[in-house]
C-alpha cells in the first residue's frame, strides 16, 4: 500500500507539469498542436484501413478464366481438382439462387473472355432483362491493370462487340477500367455496362477516338497531360459522329455509369 502511495506522489508532478506546459502555450501554438494531433489520428486510421484492405483477396478473376471457362465437361481437370470455385452456370442450373456462385460466359476467343458480373445477381426476376447489364471482359493471360505495360489493345474491341450485342442503342454503351487504387482484383477487367443519362454531358468532354485499338495509347497521353502517372481510370463511350470517345479520371469512372442494379 505504501508503495502505491509513493507511486502516486511520484507521478503527480509530471501530470501537473504537462498541464502547466500546455496552458502556457499561446493560442497559435495550441492550434498547431491540435492540428498535429488530428493529423496523427487520421494517418493512423488510414494505415489501419489500408492494412485491412490488404487482407482482402485480389486474385479471384484469373482463376475463373483459367480453371472455370474451359471446364465445361464432366471430369475436367479444374473442376475435379477443386480449382474452380465458380463453375459455368450450366453446371449449377439456371436458378437465380446460384447466380452468385457460378460463371456465365457471354463470349470468348483465344485472347479474352466476357462473363456476367455478379452484380447482376442482385437484380430480381421482375427486372427487365435489358435494363441492367454488367459484364467483365478479361484477358486469358496475366495482366494486372491500367498500369501494366502488357495491357492488350484488343480488349476494347472485344468488350465493345460483347456490349453491342446486349445493349441497345449503342449510344448507351459504357466500357470502363478502374484505377489501381480503386479496384477489387489485380487481373485486368473491362466493365461492360450502360452510361447514365444524367452523365451524358460529362462524358461528352472525352477525346474523340477513331478506333478502339488506340484506346490505351490515347488514354495514356491524356493521363500524362493531367499528371496522373500510371494510376487512372478509363471510360469509353460512343461518339455521335467520330466513332468513340475516351475519358480519363483520377477516380473511378463508375459514377458515370449504371454500376449497380437499379
TrEMBL record:
Instruction: Name the InterPro entries on file.
Output: CDP-diacylglyc_Pase, HIT-like_sf
Query: What keywords is this UniProt entry annotated with?
Result: Cell membrane, Hydrolase, Lipid biosynthesis, Lipid metabolism, Membrane, Phospholipid biosynthesis, Phospholipid metabolism, Transmembrane, Transmembrane helix
Q: Which family does it belong to?
A: Belongs to the Cdh family.
Cell compartments where the protein resides:
Cell membrane
Q: Name one Pfam family in it.
A: CDH
A GO molecular function held by the record: CDP-diacylglycerol diphosphatase activity
Task: Please give the pathway this protein is involved in.
Answer: Phospholipid metabolism; CDP-diacylglycerol degradation; phosphatidate from CDP-diacylglycerol: step 1/1; Lipid metabolism
Query: What membrane topology is given?
Result: Single-pass membrane protein
Q: Which GO terms describe its biological process?
A: CDP-diacylglycerol catabolic process; phospholipid biosynthetic process
Report the EC code(s) recorded for this entry. Answer: 3.6.1.26
**Name of the protein described by the UniProt record:** CDP-diacylglycerol pyrophosphatase
Q: From the UniProt record, list the coiled-coil ranges.
A: none
What is the first-listed, main subcellular location in coarse terms?
membrane
Q: Which reaction does it catalyse?
A: a CDP-1,2-diacyl-sn-glycerol + H2O = a 1,2-diacyl-sn-glycero-3-phosphate + CMP + 2 H(+)
Quick one: a GO cellular component term?
A: plasma membrane
